[in-house]
Task: inverse folding
């Protein structure tokens, strides 16, 4: 029998990747391309949807060519993506009417204030599981319709389509122009009712978004359409938002199991089973995935700036040449670094939800050097993750026994040791830290009958465990300093 492969298209915030998996679920090869981050104004973040499509297709083609893959041996492709990022395009021309507005973008804070003034916070939480914040797609769609010339007229004529990045990719990859998304992505839009699994008419009215723009919502493991490539039809068998895909790839199938992904941001998700549980501690309720007729929910804590703070050290401050260097620099300093960096460059996400916080550095003295700033920036990733885990423990009522990690920055051993120390919890790092791609590959494999959900548990291998070594007093004292620093960054901007 000829070999069968699954390819995961992983469209992230800073790069597009294509990842090749064999029939045992082992990762064979990966191709990656970064693309431009566009910052037109302070607090605005955009991507060019055409560049996203181009880099995604190029990595797919490179993967096939560089590994001499016979196109017939590709059994299916899955799509996983940066979530919330919003594209609106003209369905007649296929051209976006504006750049993609990225999840980190803060321009719609004023629309959120209007929604809050109308006392919609309770309704939003009960029906979408979210908080009113510029993070989510709904207010971004409204902004595009309100600000792009002729957008409202085009929308009234039913000429416009909205999509998160998964939707944009599928529409472009399928000859039939399939306009679709999955439950996990829809649950990040602020306009999807996660109780009844339908677009929410009340919120669409409030935001003045016509229903004709919206994609059909399907389970995450589903035959969405076919990618027509060089005359061959490859089934698109899975779609999931990248954080939910990582939860699946980490085999967090049981209620109470959680993972934290250390990418551009940090995203802690805990499976809460088929029951929708609302947070009392600033976390979000989201759809983890849909398989056949079942929908599973998760609690989520999202930190906007995680690994992105390391990129800031490299590209903004220019005090390091590469992210990897931070491990060596941090190892040479004690973890009693008195400096705190709060990277609130895009406000603060969970559990604070402050669109007006700004980044700050605290504790500088005459002997502070650039290495202290590097170490403090790395530490901030662990402190922010601790904030999320404490909120999650309060909501679930049980302490987290061990934390599963993945994403680019989890390869930093000093960061993982500090995370274990500051949490006082064991950390499990899998052999394959590309859990996002793996998760959607499995969702795809399930659709086409290549795998079962149990195979994921069997195939999972732990590469390393980190156990806490820090004493209690030091841990408490360090974390107290962090909370003080957070307090001082909150509500900084009054725009
Ligand atoms: N060794 C490292 N130490 C600290 N941060 C790292 C390291 N390697 C990568 N990163 C950070 O992790 C992020 C990349 O992780 P990745 O999972 O690829 O992100 P994304 O999917 O969000 O684009 C970057 O922001 C980078 O700065
Ligand atoms: O692209 P990532 O991996 O940083 O993920 C972004 C998240 O999906 C935003 O919610």
Result:
């Amino acid at each position: 029998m000829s070999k069968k492969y699954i390819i995961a298209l992983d469209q992230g915030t800073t790069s597009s990747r294509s990842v090749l998996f064999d029939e045992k679920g082992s990762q064979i090869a990966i191709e990656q391309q970064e693309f431009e981050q566009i910052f037109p104004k302070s607090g605005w973040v955009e991507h060019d949807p055409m560049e996203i499509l181009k880099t995604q297709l190029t990595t797919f083609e490179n993967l096939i060519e560089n590994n001499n893959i016979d196109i017939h041996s590709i059994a299916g492709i899955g799509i996983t993506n940066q979530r919330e990022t919003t594209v609106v395009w003209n369905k007649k021309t296929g051209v976006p009417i504006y750049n993609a507005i990225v999840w980190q973008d803060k321009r719609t804070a004023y629309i959120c204030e209007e929604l809050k003034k109308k006392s919609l916070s309770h309704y939003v939480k009960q029906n979408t599981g979210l908080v009113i914040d510029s993070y989510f797609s709904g207010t971004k769609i409204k902004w595009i319709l309100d600000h792009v010339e002729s957008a409202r007229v085009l929308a009234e004529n039913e000429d416009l389509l909205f999509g998160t990045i998964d939707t944009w990719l599928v529409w472009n990859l399928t000859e039939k122009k399939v306009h679709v998304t999955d439950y996990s992505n829809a649950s990040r839009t602020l306009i999807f009712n996660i109780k009844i699994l339908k677009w929410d008419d009340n919120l669409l009215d409030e935001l003045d978004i016509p229903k004709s723009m919206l994609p059909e919502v399907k389970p995450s493991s589903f035959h969405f359409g076919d990618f027509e490539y060089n005359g061959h039809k490859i089934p698109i068998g899975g779609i999931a938002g990248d954080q939910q895909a990582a939860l699946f790839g980490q085999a967090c199938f049981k209620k109470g199991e959680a993972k934290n992904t250390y990418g551009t941001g940090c995203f802690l998700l805990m499976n809460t089973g088929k029951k929708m549980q609302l947070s009392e501690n600033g976390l979000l309720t989201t759809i983890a995935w849909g398989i056949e007729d079942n929908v599973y929910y998760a609690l989520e804590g999202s930190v906007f700036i995680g690994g992105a703070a390391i990129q800031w050290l490299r590209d903004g401050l220019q005090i390091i040449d590469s992210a990897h260097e931070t491990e060596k620099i941090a190892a040479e300093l004690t973890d009693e670094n008195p400096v705190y960096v709060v990277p609130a460059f895009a406000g603060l996400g969970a559990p604070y939800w402050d669109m007006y916080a700004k980044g700050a550095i605290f504790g500088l003295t005459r002997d502070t050097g650039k290495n202290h700033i590097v170490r403090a920036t790395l530490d901030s990733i662990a402190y922010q993750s601790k904030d999320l885990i404490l909120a999650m423990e309060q909501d679930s009522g049980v302490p987290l026994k061990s934390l599963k990690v993945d994403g680019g920055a989890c390869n930093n051993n000093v960061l993982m040791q500090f995370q274990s120390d500051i949490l006082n919890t064991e950390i499990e790092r899998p052999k394959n830290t590309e859990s996002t791609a793996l998760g959607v590959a499995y969702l795809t494999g399930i659709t086409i009958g290549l795998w079962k959900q149990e195979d994921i548990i069997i195939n999972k291998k732990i590469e390393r465990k980190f156990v806490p070594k820090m004493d209690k007093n030091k841990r408490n004292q360090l974390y107290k300093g962090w909370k003080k620093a957070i307090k001082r960054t909150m509500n900084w901007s009054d725009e």
